[in-house]
Specification:
Shape: globular
Helix content: 25-40%
Radius of gyration: 20 Å
Structural class: alpha/beta
CATH class of the largest domain: Alpha Beta
Bound molecules: adenosine monophosphate, magnesium ion
Distance between the termini: 50 Å
Largest sheet: 12 strands, mixed
CATH topology of the largest domain: DHBP synthase
Number of helices: 12
Order of helices and strands: EHEEHEHEHEHEHEHEEEHEHEHEEHEHE
Number of strands: 17
Strand content: 15-25%
Amino acid sequence: MKTLLLTSAEAEKAASILRSGGLVALPTETVYGLGASALEEEAVKRIFEVKGRPQDNPLIIHVAGPEALSEWCEAVPESAYILAERYWPGPLTLVLRCRKTGEPHIPDRVTAGLDTVAVRCPDHPATLEVIRLAGVPVAAPSANLSGKPSTTTALHCLHDLEGKVEAILDGGPCRVGLESTILDLTVTPPRVLRPGGITLEQLRESLREVELDRGLVLPGETPKAPGMKYRHYAPSAELTLVRCRDAEAFIQYAKGVPDEGTAVLCWTGEENAFPGKQVLAYGRGDEPETLAAHVFAALRELDRPEISRILVRCPEEDGVGLAVVNRLKKAAGGKILCL
Ligand code: AMP
Ligand code: MG
């Protein structure tokens, strides 16, 4: 199959591919999504096949605004509208009860048979236009092969998906760079199932009480979001996440690791401290948003045959830093080294 590369001005073309049951990689503010009409079971099935995604891992549906909540969900609490009003379009996914009757409704293939559905409204003008023109909710997981780092540019999508999908819409690099925060509103108090661009601190300003899913904080607990139990985002090299008090401790640790085959993923300003090793800075330690924006692109850049080991400087778990550390821990297979 020839994969078309579309520009932001070609939203109508992308929408018509979706309406006719095709797949389009779409830009969002978080990461690129691999979109299909959520109402076309065959197209949704192809998303799983193309990505190699496990069948038990449900998809997020992307909608044009809060009015869609009552269309696809039932028993929608007031808090959903408060949050949608405040943070949509934006990197917040709400898990709500799924309407299972009436036509049309979201098929089980999207929700992996759960009685809930994850919904969000992406903050990218071209993709919002595509959703409006398609006139359907768009089911979209991240537009990468399963297990690999998420894609944050059209070029990354092309690398993973060329020849496998009808089109890729190039909307430039993603602003946030990490997937959305997932908030489960079907439990009391509401629970964060995946940290992301909207922080725990922001959610706690809007809702009285918000908890973190136990699967995010306690080793050995099964996460409630099915996708959070898989190893993810991993380059081929072994990744060691290093938590340390300061740059000096990290530099000293790196000195003890052989140069051959080692890459260091450090913070801006530290690049010259690792002579002999491959070095890449992924952002500023005191600005976790910059780390979030570049972490996936950095992991992709270091996915090279000559690199067998990657040492990553771990940020603090405040604000968006919580989401950055969550993704890096997954890329490291759960291992974190504390100096
Ligand atoms: P991705 O599309 O790759 O960002 O993955 C979507 C994430 O949302 C996965 O971790 C899914 O398991 C999770 N998810 C989707 N739908 C639900 C749901 N109804 N309940 C809990 N988690 C969900
Ligand atoms: Mg993903």
